[in-house]
Design brief:
Blueprint: E1 12-17, H1 24-29, E2 33-38, E3 44-47, H2 53-73, H3 78-112
Antiparallel strand pairs: 1-2, 2-3
Length: 134
């Protein structure tokens, strides 16, 4: 798995904004939302996941680094590699579930055939022709 990407701090412009949405009066009064702008590319990322400014700063930097890596590396980026792994696991899980239910449907159908056929007599004899009691 590729290492986590990082961002040069000199290329960033950081602003603290007032939050909005759920979280009550505290989120609306304090400037805990973080907005980062990557100066060379102009990409802007805003983070307001928690009420903590320091945690939002870390989250915003992680998001910005991931976006820059996707632009730079494309399908070899960490995000793309993780998405591919997740996609393969989901496909495998779905395939396994289909196999399981297909097998269960097959067993149910074969169980339904036992003793329901009219016109056939039960053969209770062994290969020697003797009658076998059950």
């Amino acid at each position: 798995m590729p290492p986590r990407p990082s961002v040069n701090e000199d290329d960033l412009e950081e602003a603290f904004l007032r939050g909005s949405g759920p979280g009550g009066q505290k989120i609306n009064k304090t400037s805990c939302a973080v907005q980062l702008k990557h100066l060379p590319t102009g990409i802007v990322v805003k983070s307001q996941e928690t009420r903590s400014r320091s945690q939002n700063r870390k989250i915003a930097r992680r998001l910005l680094a991931a976006k820059l890596e996707v632009i730079e590396k494309g399908p070899e980026s960490r995000t793309a590699v993780l998405a591919e792994v997740k996609k393969r696991k989901k496909a495998s899980k779905n395939k396994k579930a289909k196999r399981k239910y297909k097998k269960l449907d097959g067993e149910t159908a074969s169980e339904g055939d036992d003793g329901d056929d009219e016109g056939e007599e039960s053969n209770n004899t062994d290969p020697g022709g003797d009658l076998v009691s059950s």
